[in-house]
Amino acid sequence: MPTPPLAGSTTGPAALRPLIDTVLTALQQGARRRDGPLPAGGPDTVTAHMRTALDPLIPEHGTGPHHALATLIGALTEGAADPADPLCAAHLHTPPLALATAADLAASALNPSMDSWDQAPAASTLEADTTAALAAEIYPHHPHPDALITTGGTEANQLALLLARERHGPTLQTITGTNAHHSITRATWLLGLPTPLTVPAPDGTIDLTALHNTLTHHHGHHPLLVTATAGTTDTGQIDPLTAIADLCHTHGAELHIDAAYGGPLLLSPTHRHKVTGLDRAHSVTLDLHKLGWQPASAGILAVPDHHHLDPLHHHAPYLNADDDTQAGLPDLLGRSLRTTRRPDALKIAVTLQALGRTGLADLIDRTCTAAHHLADLITKHPALDLYDRPTITTVLFRPTNADDHTVATIRRTLLTRGHAVLGRTRTHGHLWLKATLLNPHTTPDDLNKLLDLVTHLTTELTESSPNR
C-alpha cells in the first residue's frame, strides 16, 4: 500500500476531495438506512451492528481508505441519534450548521495547535479577535473584556471557579441554586473548594429570599461567589439575574453566570431582555454548541477585563520563551489550561460572518417560536399536561393522569423503536417528558407528529397494562 497522502499543503485538497465524496455518500446512505431520529432496536442491536462493521478493527492488511470510510461512517450514521431530525429533541444537542461543519473540516486539515504562535500564526489572531468580539457582546460597557475558547460549559464553569479561587484563596465559598448545572459542584471538588451552599429553587429559579438570607449569614466569614444560571438543563428557566447581581453587590459577593444555554439570546432583539444582567457578572459561561448551532466543541468563558485571565499564565520555555515573547511572538499558553487545542474559533467566526446578527437572530427566534407553538399544542390537547410556558426552547409535558413509570416507559419505548428522542426530568413531584427544541427547520407538522407518537403510545401502554 502506498504512503497515504496528507491533508495539508497544496496537494492536500486534491487528496481530500475524493475521500470527502466517499464520506458524504456514506453519511447520506447511512441516514437513509436509519430512516428516523435514531436507530431502532435499542443498545444491544446498535452495539451488534457497530461491532460487525468494526470487525476486524486492526486487520493484518488494511482495507483501504474508501472502504474503511464507507464502512465505518456508514455504520456510525445508521446508528446515530441525529439532532438534525426534528424528532430528536431530548438534550441540548444541536444540529450543527453545514457551514460551521465545513469550517471544521478546514480546521482539521490545517491542524493548527493553539498553544504557540509558530503552530498557529493566523489562527492565533482569528481566535483573539473572535473571543474579543464575543466578550464585547456580553460586556459592552467594559473597555477591555476578553474570553477563552473552552470545550464546553463544564470546562468554562471550572475555569470561572479557578479564577475566583486565585483571586480569593482556597476558602472561597460558592453559593448556588438547586437548579444549577452539576459541573459547579464537580468544579468545587476538583479545585479543593468548600462544598457549595445550596439555595432552594422551588419554582425552577433561585429563591431570592433564601439567597439573601444565605449571603447575610455568611457575609464576612469567607469570600463568597454566587453562581446563577441563565437556562437550566431541566426546564430552561433563567434565574433573576439583575436581582441576584444586586444582592451580590450589597453583600460583597462575586457573581458567575452559567449562560451556556441562554447566553446566545443576547443576539436576538426579541429575546435579549431575558438575559439582562449578564454584564454584571465577574465571569460568564457561553456554549455555542447549544443555541449557536456549532459542532462540538464551542464553549466560551468571558470576563469583563482581560487582566482577570492573568492567573492562567504559564511558562514553558519550548512554547513561550521569554526572549521570544519580548521579541513580539504572542504568548498563547495563558489562553487555556490545555496545551494542544483545536482552532474551534474558526467555525464560530465563519458562522458569525456568514449569518451576521440578523441571521443568527432569525435562527434563535425561529427556534423559540417553535417551542411556544409546541406548548400551545400541548395546552389544547385533552390528553396532555404542560409544565409551564417555555423560557427558551425547553418544553416539559406528560400524559394526563399517567404515573411516573408510564412516563419513563413511553420515553424508553420511543427510543427502542427509533421513533423519537425525548428527555426526562423530575420536578414538582413528577417525571416529565422533555423536548429541547434546537432545530430551526422544525415545522408544526413535526410537532404534531411528536405529540401523536406520545399519545398513541400512552394509549397502547394503558390498554396493555395488567392493572387496567
From TrEMBL:
A UniProt-annotated Pfam family: Pyridoxal_deC
Under Gene3D superfamilies, the record lists: Aspartate Aminotransferase, domain 1, Type I PLP-dependent aspartate aminotransferase-like (Major domain)
Instruction: Name the needed cofactors.
Output: pyridoxal 5'-phosphate
Annotated keywords:
Aminotransferase, Decarboxylase, Lyase, Pyridoxal phosphate, Transferase
GO MF terms held by the record = transaminase activity
In which family does this protein belong, per the annotation? Belongs to the group II decarboxylase family.
Protein name, please?
Answer: Aminotransferase class V-fold PLP-dependent enzyme
Please tell me the species this chain comes from: Streptomyces poriferorum
